[in-house]
Amino acid sequence: MPEILPLSLRHRRPGRIRPQLGPIRDALARLGDPQSVYPSILIVGTNGKGSTAAILDAVLQAHGVATGLTTSPHLVAVAERIRIRGRNIDRADLERHLESLAMNEDLTFFETITGAAFLAFAEAGVEVAVLEAGMGGSWDATRVAGSTIAGITNVGSDHAGWLGRDVLDRARDKGAPLRSASRAVIGSGVAAEHVAAVGSLHAVPAGELIKAAALGDGRLLLAWDDVAIEVPVPLAGAHQIANVQLALALARCAEAEGHLVRLEPAAVAEGLANVRWPGRLSEHTVGGRKILVDGAHNLEGAVALAAHLGRQPERYNLLFSCLDDKDVEGMADVLAPVVGEIAVCPLDDERAMAVSRIAAAFSNTLQAPDPLTALNRLPDPVVAAGSLRLVGALLEAAEEGVGS
Questions:
Q1: pTM higher than 0.85 for the full model?
Q2: What are phi and psi of 167, to 5 degrees?
Q3: pLDDT band, residue 367 (cuts 50/70/90)
Q4: CA dist., res. 357 & res. 341, Å (int)
Q5: Which label site among 57, 132, 179, 306 has the fewest CB atoms less than 10 Å from its CB?
Q6: Can you tell me the distance from the alpha carbon of 381 to that of 378, in angstroms, rounded to the nearest whole number?
């Protein structure tokens, strides 16, 4: 059953976007600017922000740092968006902090959740907050934290209508937090031709702070200063290596800022072993069947997923749906050649793409009225992808849930 939203969120449309910082700044100022009580690290980019944030959060915790983490979107429950010391915020605390913002009728859904996160972190006494930007960088609500450390994963094709049709315009927008941070890191996923547009003259490549090399069999060699350690890649997919590298580079920045004494090899290994980030090439049991789910929601995500599927010993069948602002034709061109049977379905979202368009992009598809029916029409093995909304709908029915 879909989650019943807290009362103070029910009238706020999740899809509403506003390119302004004034309203959230004013709302937080009336509450004493809780976002200024603790230092924060902001992660921007197109893909991999959430994975990088989850990795960084786990590594900082392993070093004894009391962390707050805010990410988006959630998969099943809104409380997933706010984590304190590695655990989802308590529902009662979430509702209380949301209620503190209820008088601000014009705040968007994302602004309200972000404000609640700032309030929760201040009350809990977190020592460092790890923030995942929602969209872009120049006017995302997370910007009001004034993060002194910022990193960027990559610059892709998403949200061109808001951030700019030209990729360099999108790079400039996403680079805004790096330009205002005292320490900034460029992830290895940022193409060389986009670095100048990010515009942060003091930013350093993640590879200058952390060396990362794949060893095969899911293992990774990490090196910094006089340290070298071999660890398992914490999340599936070769693309996660860049996210690990950026997360640890940001941890080194936190070290330089005095938020942890020293980046310790044992704590790094412990933190990486503790990373949990469902919906990113993760396996779950739904209806008694093991399925692979991935939030690949744009062309770049589809390319990464296709590369992963192409390396598997058996051919997966695809369950797919997406939102209406996605390049579904491009995603189909990438995914169709590496999968077997394909089933498509609508999403319970005001921005869902029409099933007829999805089916036309893939051709030769099975159509179903909902994700679970679509799943039941496919043989094993199955991978579900195209939207985190689809992943969330499936995980609502997962036997093991998504954890807390």
A1: yes
A2: -60, -30
A3: very high
A4: 18
A5: 179
A6: 8
Which domains does the chain carry? Answer: 7-273 (3.40.1190.10), 280-395 (3.90.190.20)
Whether 324 and 352 have beta carbons less than 8 Å apart is answered as: yes
Opening angle at CA 349, ends 347 and 354, nearest 5: 55
Place of tokens 């999403």: 347
Least Cα distance to 159 among 142, 174, 146 occurs for 174
The contacts of residue 20 (CB under 8 Å, 6+ apart) are 139
pLDDT at 399 (0 to 100): 72
Span 104-138, pLDDT tens digits: 888 999 999 999 999 999 999 999 999 999 988 88
pLDDT for 7: 59
The H-or-E segment that residue 52 falls in is helix 49-62
Closest-CA residue to 337 (of 305, 290, 296): 305
Q: Which pLDDT score, from 0 to 100, does residue 160 have?
A: 56
In the numeric block, the tokens 């849930």 are attached to 401
- Spatial distance between the Cα atoms of 154 and 52, rounded to a whole number of angstroms: 12
For residues 85 and 62, what is the distance between their CA atoms, to the nearest angstrom?
10
* Closest by CA position to 286, among listed 239, 254, 319, 313: 319
d(CA 377, CA 367): 9
Express each pLDDT in 81-101 by its tens digit.
999 999 999 999 999 999 999
Burial 332-353 (b: 16+ CB within 10 A, else e): bebbbebbebbbbbbbebeebb
Q: What is the mean pLDDT of residues 311-322?
A: 97
How many residues are there in the chain? Answer: 404
Q: Count CA atoms within 13 Å of residue 214 on its CB side.
A: 12
Quote the CA–CA distance of 62 and 264 in Å, as a whole number: 9
Residue 350 — very low, low, confident or very high, per pLDDT cuts 50/70/90? confident
- In this structure, how many other beta carbons lie within 10 angstroms of the beta carbon of residue 331? 27
Whether the per-residue pLDDT at 235 is higher than 90: the answer is yes
Whether pLDDT at 18 is above 80? no
What is the rounded distance in angstroms from the CA atom of residue 154 to the CA atom of residue 325?
A: 19
